[in-house]
């Protein structure tokens, strides 16, 4: 099937292009290094500064996990989805820009502003994901979602390269900027990139499916949310998928988030780790597109199993990892599947949900995704400590992919699933 994207679909996907700059520059690469340097200069030990960053991530993750379904349920009312998306977008992009103006020696204020930036970015993504049901039909969602992830990886590379170039030029005194101001420039680049390329989303994407306004919308939203919990068995397909997603996406997220620790244990330098991270993004882009095409041809569930199998292989290979070359191989394998498995999970879920309640259910989707970031690192850490070997810790993640794959087997095909519960 040849897919020609509509203006709405392309505009929706462009937000992936816009927001991915935040993911790599703020979440993964530049901000953590900037914060660590600020904390060190303030006399905070390395272990304490890492712990404080971890606590910050846990705090905003918990807040979003709790608020997601509630806000999503309210946003299902006509005209509310774009308003919630806009609020979190302004909070995220504005706070990201504000990071550039925080005094470099104020590590605590950095964490506070970062919390608001992360709340904005993650919160906007809840409503962005749910807009997939508004811009695309069920049979097109695999390709559209994969297209979003694919151009997101491409888009993230451009500001990342620009930011790293500025930082490295400053490091070698090739431009009249200090390292601190070079990092601040990267924060501004991220905010500007995010804002400019979000314009098509605001201009062309509209809420097509909704619930008509009611008196006391907040109270009625809580009632609808409670009703969903009471009738959870009637949404069996949806919640089976969420349970499967909880396990396998936990493994995916753990491998991505802990990759720097693996590399450090192998003695890989920071510069090399940034290069490997960049190459993983480059590899991920075409494979995200490929996953969408393969899902249309062979079925979404089948290609999700391919992704799960690749990650299972990564965990097994990690057991034998003992060189920089092994780390490169693992990183490239992860790159082949990290975008694809996330894109197809989003589209598969989008095809299962009742469209007029998409925000409510995508709120649950994000809860499962957020809480899934707890179990994997815990499993890895405990196993690594008990065995004294990080490789055993990574290998232990195999169990998450096996459990997720088994549960996924019982999830219905979206083309034969009626998301409206029986009375």
Automatic annotation (TrEMBL):
Source organism (scientific name) = Bhargavaea ullalensis
Q: Where in the cell is it found?
A: Cell membrane
Report the SUPFAM superfamilies cross-referenced here.
MFS general substrate transporter (SSF103473)
Q: Which domain of life is it from?
A: Bacteria
Q: How does it sit in the membrane?
A: Multi-pass membrane protein
> Where would you find the membrane-spanning parts of this chain?
21-39, 51-72, 84-102, 108-128, 149-170, 182-202, 238-262, 268-291, 303-321, 361-380, 392-411
Q: Please give one Pfam family short name.
A: ATG22
Alphabetically sorted, this entry's keywords are: Membrane, Transmembrane, Transmembrane helix, Transport
Q: Where is the Major facilitator superfamily (MFS) profile domain?
A: 237-423
Q: Which InterPro entries match?
A: Atg22-like, ATG22/LtaA_families, MFS_dom, MFS_trans_sf
Taxonomically, what lineage is the organism?
Bacteria, Bacillati, Bacillota, Bacilli, Bacillales
What name appears for this protein in its UniProt entry?
UMF1 family MFS transporter
